[in-house]
Amino acid sequence: MISADDLIALVRNYNPKTNADRIALAYEFGQQMHEGQFRHSGEPYFTHPVAVAAILTEQRLDDATIITALLHDTIEDTKANYGKVAELFGDEVAKLVDGVTKLTNLQLSSRETKQAENFRKLFMAMSKDLRVILVKLADRLHNMRTIKAMRPEKQIVKARETMDIYAPLAGRMGMQWMREELEDLAFRVLNPEGRQSIIRRFITLQRETGDVIHRITGDMRHELEKAGIEAEVFGRAKKPYSIWRKMQEKDQGFSRLSDIYGFRIITQTEEDCYRTLGAIHQRWRAVPGRFKDYISQPKSNGYRSIHTTVSGRDGKRVEVQIRTRQMHDVAETGVAAHWSYRDGVRTENPFAVDPAKWISNLTEQFDNEEDHEDFLEAVKLEMYSDQVFCFTPKGDVVKLPRGATPIDFAYAIHTRIGHACVGAKVDGIRVPLWTRLKNGQSVDIITADGQTPQVTWLEIAVTGKARTAIRRALREVDRERFIKLGKELARSGFEHVGRKATDKALDTAAKHLRLKDRHELLARLGSAELTAHEVVQAVYPELAKDDGDAIPLRRAVIGLEPGQKFDRAPCCQPLPGERIVGITYRGKGVVVHAIDCDRLSEFEGEPDRWVDLHWHSGTHPAVYGATLDLTIGNDAGVLGRICTLIGEKKANISNLEFVDRKPDFYRLLINVELRDLEQLHSLMLMLEAESDVAAVERYRDQVKTSVAAG
């Protein structure tokens, strides 16, 4: 454990004017209060607050924050109280410690309205002093670094909460290094096999290509010296989770990913940033669509940098970030730069922003005190995502989260525009409403009188504002339809556990879920704001955990009319667990498509043919076909081994077609019969880890037009 003197020395490194006596007193008081308490590892409990304080010294934070770290668990876990802390260390520290305690006690990942309400109130309170978040993030970082001492089931809960809440929060507040470490520590717990697979691939790559980072760093320094630019150059391999996420987002294997190395160039002036960009682009070819200028358009947390991706002669891509030293300080510490010290005085960094601004921006649109769930969703969606900048036809800039669609764009302009949206043009070309918008695109929303929001828009929209407005409109216009669909979902969900969805059972579920009555519960169930599993769990938690027998094919899809048949679309081969929508065909019933299927654009002008559908939430039999596009090495026994591995994953191969044969590899399409989307991802992950598999991805034939048997 770090001693009081060593901790004070860490603070003195950046703040020689620190009040050493006050920090020493906090150290002594905290140690005394936690006397006799131990962590899961067997260490004295006070080692944890000291480690949290040490993490915060790396961000050069003020004395009050360091003292808060030392005392952050005293009010909650010891005989100390608010009054005692205020008496010894003043109101500022007492309020900070109390704020951290309240944040610790909140179940941030809960869906209950009460917790959403607490989250909202705390966010409002934190806008006055976000140092409580800095302490809480450091607290979570140390807990994740030492998580192996916890029980395995507790590790998974903590890791999931870290991945869902704390890592994105750190990123949104500008502390990218902390986000990456939190994500990787959580990834280590949630998917150790996936992480090891990435690391093994890295080791193999380094063996094959040598020290790429050292070579490229040297080349960049040489180019900058030639251009007369004074700058520092650093390179690194990206974290395993960062690479894993790219693989999932792009649906690509490791071998097909290119920008797995990142380089950072720190210049003297802003002008040098742009000169450096020119020098880099003169030597290496820029990759189209991968340039972002966050210097001229900074992020809301103050982040400024130029991002570009370039490729060399071998086709390998690397990402390059260019920024000044002051920009780099903000990029490393984020909103913490607001409180940072250097040489005994608060840092005067022109790029540090008021950390309360992004919270106040979030809360402006939610004036109705009853919208706690909407507020919580908006916080999760908009606080935890990167932004894209798009333009209206008049040239006005609209900021949206990454992954936003024209629906989000329409609602960002005005709720009335969103409600009346029937289509969109992006850069002058008509596109489907589920198209993901990119930086710099010009978006023109097409509206029509009489148009009303569609339930499928909830699957398309990603911003809290759009989803809230759509839900409100749907509740008013389609309440009866949602209640009808909700009854069917509830009936099916309760039958699955051998119970009936009686009025009394639904009233009980509504009360438990803090809803007004069973009609409100059914309306939310029908509009996909609740799942049947959540409703059943509210009444029969012990039964909801048991999936029971596999769901028969005739009951697999919920939302069909009595006696109505369904078929799976061969173009997208939707699997249980995917978001789906139905298209009616006269005489053929309903064809089920995945919500992101390209062929749905053909039916955009025929809303009457669209049917709201859901997969049953239970366990499905392994009868749903999906096609894998696999590239494997052409060696003896490889294909047999691959087929064996697929069989070990309980997936039956129904067809196999070679589409390309070369001397060193085969490319083939393999049809497998699966239970659901989760089994598909598990199968692809296992194949991706195989050394003889060069690439694996899900194959979707968007050309097919015939209807496949369900």
Describe this structure in words.
This protein is α+β, with helices and mostly antiparallel strands and 710 residues long. The chain is built from 29 helices and 23 strands. The strands form seven sheets. Strands 1, 2, 3, 4, 5 and 6 form a six-stranded mixed sheet that branches. A hairpin with a 5-residue loop joins strand 9 and strand 10 (397-401). Helix 2 (20-33) runs parallel beside helix 4 (63-71), helix 7 packs across helix 9 (131-145) and helix 8 crosses helix 18 (372-383). The chain starts with a helix and ends in an 11-residue tail after the last strand. It comes from Ruegeria atlantica. Residues 627-701 form the ACT domain.
Characterize this entry briefly.
The protein is of the alpha+beta class and 710 residues long. The protein contains 29 helices and 23 strands.
Which stretches are poorly predicted, pLDDT < 50 over at least 5 residues? 110-116, 365-369, 381-385, 704-710
The count of DSSP E runs of length 2 or more, i.e. the number of strands, is 23
Mean pLDDT: 80
Strand proportion, as a percent range, falls in 15-25%
Strand count, sense and barrel status of the largest sheet are: 6 strands, mixed
Give helix % range: 40-55%
Assembly type: single chain
How far do the termini sit from each other?
Answer: 63 Å
| Class based on secondary structure composition and strand pairing | alpha+beta
Family: Belongs to the relA/spoT family.
Pfam family, one: RelA_AH_RIS
Function: In eubacteria ppGpp (guanosine 3'-diphosphate 5'-diphosphate) is a mediator of the stringent response that coordinates a variety of cellular activities in response to changes in nutritional abundance.
InterPro entries: ACT-like_dom_sf, ACT_dom, Beta-grasp_dom_sf, HD/PDEase_dom, HD_domain, NT_sf, RelA/Spo_fam, RelA/SpoT_AH_RIS
